[in-house]
Structure formats: C-alpha cells, structure tokens
Write a structure and sequence with these properties.
4 copies of one chain form a homotetramer.
Chain A (H helix, E strand, L loop, with lengths): L1 E5 L3 H12 L3 E5 L3 H9 L3 E2 L3 H7 L5 E4 L3 H12 L7 E4 L5 H12 L4 E8 L4 H4 L2 E5 L2 H6 L1 H7 L18 H4 L1 E5 L3 H28 L3 H4 L22 H8 L8 H12 L14 H13 L4 H13 L4 H15 L19
Parallel strand pairs in A: 1-2, 1-4, 2-3, 4-5, 5-6, 7-8
Antiparallel strand pairs in A: 6-7
C-alpha cells in the first residue's frame, strides 16, 4: 500500500525505509530538502510541501507524522485542511495522549480518521524493527495493518510465551491495537515511565558497586558525611563494566537496557566526560501525573523522575533551605565539621 | 575434576546435573536421602553424611554448599573440622557477604580456602545455565574454574557487546571473579536489589494501565478518594497481558523479567488467587543498608523494598496514625466523606 | 464593614462569627435554612437565596464563598450574574488555583474582582484564628483587609522572629497577599503538600517505635518476611503516646501536628477502631503535579501521597504482579515459605 | 545532688549550667582547660582529668558524658576502671543505641549502672530546656530524676493535651524513661529520623514556591528539561520568607522547624552563600537501617536521607550511568537538545 511520511529525522527516515523494504510505497516530506533527497535515493517519492504530498497520494490516504511533539499540533491542523473524509492521519511521534483525544475528536467531525502510535526502538529500530502501540478507531487501524506489520519487529528470535500457540497474535509480531484514540500514546507513556524506573534501578545499583570501596577510600573521606561504620565490609574494588557484562548471561535482570549499559561501560569504564545531568522527556512526567490523577501509587517511577530533576540541580533551593535550617537549630555551619574537636558541641539536633 | 555438592534442593540438584553433564564427577549429600538417591540415579556418588562425603573425595577437595543461608554457618563449622589444608569450601547460597568476610578469615587460619558465589538463574538454570558472581582468593577461584565454566551459561545466543573481540572473557561466559572474599555475594546482593527495583517499575506501570479505565469506573468510585479530575482522559480498557507480550518485541524495556510477566499475565490475566502479599528475601534489605552505610542514594531500590513491606500491611500503624491525625485537626472521620453535604465543612486542613 | 458569607458549614459559620466578633456585619446564606438560622441568632443578617443576599448588601459588595470546591464553579457563575462592577467575590474554599486563574480572568471582563484565599486552621480556627493565604488584585485585597485582620489569628503568643521589629507585618498577623489571582490557593496547596509530608514523617517514625519490640515478637513472626536479624537490638516496648507527649517539650520536632498526635494517642493508645485507610483531598495531588510540571524534585511529598494511595489498597494490582513474577522466576508460592526445609530450594532469585 | 559532667562543648556546658541553676553541684572536666575554667567561673568544681573528677566526687557517683559519639567508647572504658559498684554512668551524647546495649551489659558485670539519654534542644536549650529520652535500669533512672527535672523544659507554656489532668507526668515535664538500656537513644534516633522527614517536607514545598515563577522564566529555560507545559499557571513570584512567617500563625504546619525556617529566610531571603551540601549525622541512617531490619516501610524518612546524599553529589555515578544509557539507546547527547530541529529524531525512547 501507499503511505505518506512527514518528518524524515532518524526515526522517520528509518521507518520509511522499513516500509519500503516490505514492498510498500512511500511519499515523503521534510522541512529539510536534503532529508527528502536521501529518501528519494532509497526509492521514495519526494514532496516539496504538505500540499504536494497530499496531492501526490491517492485516496484514501494514510499519512504518518514523525515530528517533534511540539510541532504536531500545527501540522495536524494544516493537514486537516488538505485531507478528505476517509483519509487517515497517524501520529507516530511522542505526543501527549491527551492531545490525541482532543485531535481525534476534532478530526472526526471532518470525517478524518486519527491514529496515535507510540513507537519504541531507538537507533536500532531500522534493523530490529519498532515496537508499536496503537490507538484509534477499529476501521482505521485495520486499514493500516500492513504498514504496522512492516514496521514492527515481527516474531524475531524472541521465545514464544508458554501457553501461546497457533497463529501469532499481533502483539507477538510487535504491534498492538491498545484501544481508542489516545490509547497508543498512553501505553507508550507508561512504557517510558517504566523505562525510567528500570534505568534508575540499574544506575543506583551500579553506584553501590562503584562505591563498594568506600572502606578503602575512608582515609580521604569527606568529613561532611557521617564517618563510615564498619569500613571492613566496604573493601571491594568492583569492575562495573565486567559485572554488567556478566549479568547479561543467565541472570534474572538480563535486559536490553543492561545490554546498553554493558556497552557503555565497556567503551568508557569511568564514564569520563559525562556530567550526569540527566534530561527527561515528557513521558516520565505524564506517567506520574496520570498515576496521581487516578490514585495509583508509583513511588519507584516518581523517584526515578525526581532523581533526574535533582541531577540537574533542581533541588538546589530545597538543599539550601535544609542547610539554613541546620545552621539555625544546631549552629551547624555548612562545611567539614569533622575537624571540630570541641567536645559535645557537635550534634545537638 | 571432582566436586562435592551439599544441599540437593532444586538449585543444588540442577547445578550438580550441569556439572556432571560437562563431564565432571559429583559427590553429593543432602539431609533428605531421597534427594541423594535421585542424583545417584543421574550418575553422582552419594554420601550419607558430611563426613562420608569428605572421606569419599580425594585431596585437594572442592565442596559446594547450596543450602539455606540460615544453615550455612553450622555446616561450614562442621566441614571446617573435617577438611584439610588446601581444600576449598564454596558457598553458592544466598549468604550475607558479611558472613563470607568473617568465615573466610576464620577458615584461612586453618588453611582452608573459602569461595563465595552468588548464583542467579532460578528454575530455568538447568537449561540456561547460572550466572555466577564469585569472590575469594585468586588461587582457589582459579582451581575451580572448570566447574564455574560448567555451571555458567557460556556465550549462548547473547549478542556480543560492541567493541569486544578476541577470546571470550569470563564475564562473557557467565562467571566473574569479582574480588576478594565477600565480593561474590556483594555483587549478587546488589543484583537482587536492582531486581527489586526493576520488578517494581513494571508492577507500578502495569498498575497504571490496569486503572486507565478509572474514568469509566468513576460512577462507582469510592468517595474516600478525591474525585477523579478529567475523567475523559481515563477511558482506556487496556489488556495488560497483551501489552506485556507486545513490549517483548523491539521495545526499550524488553527483558527477562518482562518475559516472565507476559507469561504470568497470559496464564492468569486477572491474577486471580494472588493476594499481593509480596515476600522479600534478605538481599533487598542488605542492599539498602549497604547503600545507607556508604552514603549512596537509592530512592528507587528503597521504594521497591518498602512497597513489599507495605503489601504485607507493615504500614498499618503508620496509616492509623495518619487517620487519627486527620480526625484531630479536621474532624475527618475515617469513612466515605463524599456524602457530607454540609457546605464548607469538609476540608479545612 | 459588611461582608456576605455563602456556605455556613463549620468553617464558614466560624469565620462569620470571628468577623462579627470583630465588629463587622455579616449577611449569610446556606442551602440549609437551619444553618442560616443559627448564624442569625449570633447576630448575622440571614438571606434565603443568593439573589436575596446580593440585594440585601450595599455596593460595593464583598462576598465570601466557603463551599465545597466541587460546587464553587456553579455558585461563582450564578453570583457573577447578580453582582455589579466593583464588587468583590472571595473564594475561601479549597479550590484548585488553576480555577482561580480562569475565574479571575472571566470575572475581570465583567468588572468583578476575584480574590482567592487559602484558609488553614481546622476545627480550632474559631478560637485560634485562621491562617490566610491571599491571591488577587491589589485594590480588592486592600479593600477587604479589615476582614482578613478579623479572621486571622493576629500576633498571638508566637514569639517574634529574630531580626523583625517595628510594626507587625501582615504575615505576622496571620494573613498575606501572596500574589495575583491563584497565588493564595497555590500557596495553600503547597502548604497542604508539606502537611502530608510532615504527617507521614511522624507516622513512619511512630511505626518504627511501635515495632521496636520485633525481637520480642520474633517467635510469632510471620515466615513470609525475611527472618529478623540481630533480634537482640529490637527488644523495646515503647509507649508511643508518652513519647509523642514528651517530644512536645523542647524537642526539635515540636509542632502542632505533634500536639494532635499526642492527643490522639493519649485518647486511644492502640488506635483501636481505625482501619488506616487514609483519604486524600486534592491539594496533595495538585502539589505533586505542579512540582512535576516545573521540574522540582519532591520525593518526600510524593511518597507521602503514595502511602495514602497504598493505604487504600490502590497498590493491589502492582503487588499481585510482583507475586506473579516471583512465582514465575523462582517458583515462589505466595505463602509462608519458612517451613520449606528442602535444602537450597528457596531463593534462587 | 552532685553530678559529674564530662565534655563541656556548647551542649555539655549549657546542660551543666541548667543543672547548677536548679541548685545542684557540678564537677566538670573537658580536654580543653579553658572550657573547664569557664564553668568554674559559673560555679562548678573543675577537674584536670577523669581520675580527678572521679576522686573529687562522693559515692555513689553519677557522671554525665556529653562528648562526640566517636570518643564515647574510649571514655566509657577509662571511666569503668575508675568507678565503683553502684556508680551511674550516663551517656547523653548521640551514640548509636546498639552501643548502649553492649556497654550496659559490659558495665553491669562490674556493678556500674549505665543510662543512655537522647537529648534534643540545640542552641536554644539553655533557656528552653532539653527534651530527654532516657533508657536504662529503673533504679538508676530514678536516682538521677532530680537532674533530669533540672535539665528538661518542664511544663513551660505548652498547652496541656486534652484528657490529661492531675499531676504532671514526666513526659509532660520533658523527660521520659522510655525503656531498658538503649531505649533512650533508640527513641532519639527515631526523633531525628522524623526530623529529617519534616525538614525535607518544608524544603521541598518551599522549593516549589521558589519556582512558581517558572512560567515567567520560561524564555531562559534550559533546553535540557522538557518544555514547561501550561506556563500560564506558573506565573507567581512568591516571597518564601513571608510565607514561612505567615504559616507560623494558625496554620496546620506551624512548628519549631518552621520558626527556624522563617528566621533563616528573613535573615537571608535568597539563602546566599549556602551551597546546599547537606550533611547528615548518624541518626538518620540508623533510623532507616532499623526500619529495614524490622520490616517497617519508611519511604518518606528514607527519601529525606537520600536527598541529603544526593545534595553532596553522591548520586554522581548513577547519573552518569543514566546519561550513558541514554546515549546508547537514543543517541541522546548530554547537552541541550532543544536546538535540534531535525524532525522526529529526538525522542525514540
């Protein structure tokens, strides 16, 4: 079948390539003509504008947007004016599912189908395929199923879940119609919320291993922390690159994120050059807000989000308040206190 | 080579079987004669007591203990009296690494080598192999390397980490000498701490998906929670079994724990019959305590542990205190308050 | 001056009484005629409807709403149709500050001033006075300052903050103009978010004290938890009612919430009859969502909110998932495992 | 009665002064002769060594140690050799309660009573009195009760808890015999654990208020955070010094820690000169470890401890791991990503 692709960044371009490899036709557009050019060389039909893309395609059209979430609203609006009833507009980017709910309702009035697709796979997706979480009306999702099959990883070499047999279900091929409009991005949002938690679990654990030599370093230990108790139990100089490689084989926590961690630590064991200021995209935040809305406790997911905030010093004023309080009630000055020999003066808090 | 195996529960028996499959000899003992019998049928030499096991083996001996952590101290003590200098005692169970540090020092005085091995792999280990985290003196670890290779998964079908080439390193075969005595169980402890965090991330995320229909259920919603705001955004009836299956293919969070989750939800989508009282073994606790000792922040790992405590109602008194406070300051009674129509009375906190 | 009071629940009625005690006139209305009657006996002028209340008052009017947040929107709408330019509408309830921002903008178009006031004080406010956090345009806030002074606690017996001298600032009298529309309820929202955190800190700490006898109770200890290590250090039978009373005098954590805790525990030391299902009103949730929006880490405030969710079993599905995972990877069954004597079988995770 | 005071830092000296003000006799010693001198001027009897202090006092002696926890063990040992059966040794410092349990058992063998006292009060204790949490044998605690009464705040101006009447209980005078040896420091430990949580609740809440102008600052907003959504709701320029002053009057969260916060913010509204590297003493750590031991969930107390660790960059390696992972799976580079205009490339996670 024919599909339009708007947005030819790394992900959009690679998705288009997977679609073409499966034998479908792609009409492509990007604000950057060079990106269009590159895809045309790979066999796509190029378009110089959204209008040209729409006019080039035959009805009913299916157009996949793969653009930054901040731009999606405007492009949807522009395309809505160009499309005809029966056409399908697909948002494969990282939109907030709430925007899907609103956009789907608005487009429905004009007879245009709206499908939201959460896409996971990262830089490896071209070869591995992309995991697709789909929301939207049954009819539209069914119409684009060949495209979903082309993009998804398929069965791959993942062992079949015990108890499943017969024909492969869509979720076993790597795509799933999760529910009505918004459901795709909702599931993707939670996916990313989980991802934050899993990443944090590994990061915290590796940080313990990295500091398992605290008893050796004790002599140089900053006086601003409480003195290390039982230093004899923290005498390990652990090689975190080797450990993360080890865990990839046979351990309960083997996972793709661990594969990546092992690769990163092998390439750069001391993680030199990384400041550890960890960005966050919207999904982790939306996940926590959704959980709060519906009253579901998510201490782990929230903690993993807050760690990222703190990594960027967003906890600064809070920490200053704590230091200021400590000065007030205990006369604690914010500096190494270990050298204060004055008996009994120190910790009256 | 020859190895003694003490403790023939599921894990000990399966490890012995993997060792024999690799062509080594096993002398086995368990308090339960039937367990010994079963291994003898598989080719092992049985022993009726620890003393018999020791006398049956030739020097220098290597004896692997695979027994509950609570019993290890006594058995080590008993074996210490039976073994000779140069023998190697291996604790492959779930001991606290601090016990390793103490036991190794004590046995060293008698010339006995002590090796601690953290073992991960669960019920699938017989076929998949076990991931082995090893602590102890170089000489002793080198001596048992053939056994470690027999038990470990080997290279398997895990893709090689980019940048690694040449001969496979031990960690690429599934075992690693992590450091001196205690290092093996220390790394295993942190492994389990991470496991708790990863499990919690999945559990919390799936709980959000399970409750994404809160807007549909709003009518029956308990009055004791704040009323759901923006119910229109929580209208999704998500199939968590299908979603967890989906994520196994191509998504960033694909992992063995996800495989197990998909299997569990496929077999029992509503998780009927599970009360959700989640046990914890020692490792999760020791991980948090170690982090506190060395001053490493582990909000995610700690939260995942505390969730388990709370799942068993260990938060009861705290919650009663909160209810009691609320009664005091706001006249809040602990019951549905939504039916109180009295204007303005409700939330003066 | 004259003020209208709509909503004569406990808080509305008591606020009206404090206003009248200060020599001002109150015109009052409630859907419940008996509530109006009670205030009339105390000297207020009663009204049988919003329209009557408005027509009874002279221009420019100032009308204070003290009604459940869910009803505020409708009443504001109705009053907007009855009021005249220059009138002041005050929302003293627990509205979301976002509603204030919207309502203020809408009313401004009609020339009506809107003032949002967060009110803290609970059941003790009639005698103690209410702490008032005020948002709105300067002119309107200035106009109602005599009323704010009547309701607020005034200087009271609170020691003056070191460095402050001269005439008392408004915040030293218990009211503060925090900023434009919404600022009052925003500050009140954060106040309640802090309150959740403080309450949780006390509740968790008291729970530790309550269980400081775990070493004594060890024999009956449930097998589903890890065995208590070092039971000799948990042999304390602490009287939490006495301890909370003690801390009221001279300790760093003396506070009004501690006063209430001491009162609650003195009246009911075992907290009999409290199920510990802790409700939450909107403010705690809004606080966490606001922090997420602006990227401020609030692990403590969020944890205190999630504890309340969990106290109502909103963590049920997550915990079931955890139990299901454990069954899968370790063959752990969800029941006491301590009686399993099978060697080595137990914890292969 | 007569009491010996060892350690004349700020707290030891002030406690000695309160004792003398109440009419008791103090024999004092400190390693710093000037500190002894100062107390002698205030009426104490000075001693030049522990031996001289012991020989100066009449039997049975009661000696109060107010020295850094790290030195207590040695001094107890030295004094044990000097004291006679029936003497009482009091540790009023910040010892770990576990040390009390051990020391009390050891001293009991020599007939010496050991009393552990947790002391709260900080720099204000001289005037306000100190809150005393006492552990030890009944006989010894009874013997020193006059001293406890002298040091404790007494009834003060704290309102009596409803339901209490008749003679004041010890806890209403500011001291309490909490249980056997260790109970005093155990209760003090939990007190400090709670303190950490309460402090964090205030600090986090004030951080939200401080950043309530995020919508105004949005233009300069770092690209490394997700773009602020709904900036119109974060337009508040809140004066945190005034708000903390306000809350002292009539609000639910009025407390001594709030008094201190208001004082600190009044003196230094922007908290200039504070780096926000927050120290922690041992009690917060011991509290979390005790909770973990007995299986009590303390997410809030633990989070408040971990925030302090993170404030000192102890989360560095964890954050580097997160950045490294993000580079791997999404090609995210650790720098402002907002300027990347490439369509669709950005967030494939």
């Amino acid at each position: 079948m024919e599909i339009g692709m708007v947005g030819l960044g790394r992900m959009g371009a690679n998705i288009a390539r997977r679609i073409m490899r499966a034998g479908h036709d792609c009409v492509v557009y990007d604000v950057n003509p060079a990106s269009v050019e590159a895809l045309v060389e790979d066999g796509a039909t190029g378009a110089g504008s959204l209008a040209e893309l729409v006019s080039t395609m035959s009805s009913p059209r299916a157009i996949w947007l793969m653009i930054p979430a901040g731009l999606t609203g405007g492009v949807v609006e522009e395309l809505a004016g160009l499309l005809a009833p029966g056409d399908i507009l697909i948002d494969g980017g990282n939109s907030n599912y709430r925007d899907d709910v609103r956009r789907a309702a608005s487009l429905k009035d004009r007879g245009i189908h709206y499908v939201d697709i959460g896409t996971s796979g990262g830089v490896f997706g071209l070869e591995r395929g992309y995991c697709l979480m789909v929301g939207g009306p049954d009819e539209a999702v069914a119409a684009i199923e060949p495209i979903l099959q082309a993009i998804a990883p398929g069965e791959g070499d993942v062992a079949r879940t015990p108890g499943r047999d017969g024909e492969l279900a869509p979720e076993e091929r790597g795509y799933l119609h999760c529910g009505p409009s918004g459901a795709g991005h909702f599931v993707k949002m939670v996916h990313n919320g989980i991802e934050y938690g899993v990443m944090a679990a590994f990061a915290e654990g590796l940080n313990i291993l990295e500091n398992a030599d605290a008893g050796i370093r004790e002599a140089e230990h900053s006086a601003e922390v409480a003195p290390l108790e039982e230093a004899e139990f923290y005498q390990f100089d652990i090689d975190t690159a080797k450990v993360s490689e080890l865990w990839r084989r046979g351990s309960v926590i083997s996972s793709w994120l661990l594969d990546l961690t092992a690769a990163a630590l092998h390439a750069n064991p001391a993680l030199d050059g990384l400041a550890g200021r960890v960005s966050d995209s919207g999904e982790g935040r939306w996940t926590v807000k959704a959980a709060v809305d519906i009253g579901v406790p998510v201490p782990v997911l929230a903690a993993s989000l807050f760690e990222r905030f703190a990594s960027r010093d967003e906890d600064r004023f809070a920490n200053q308040v704590l230091s200021a309080m400590r000065q007030q009630f205990g006369g604690h000055v914010e500096r190494p206190v270990g050298d204060v020999l004055e008996a009994g003066a120190r910790k009256a808090d």
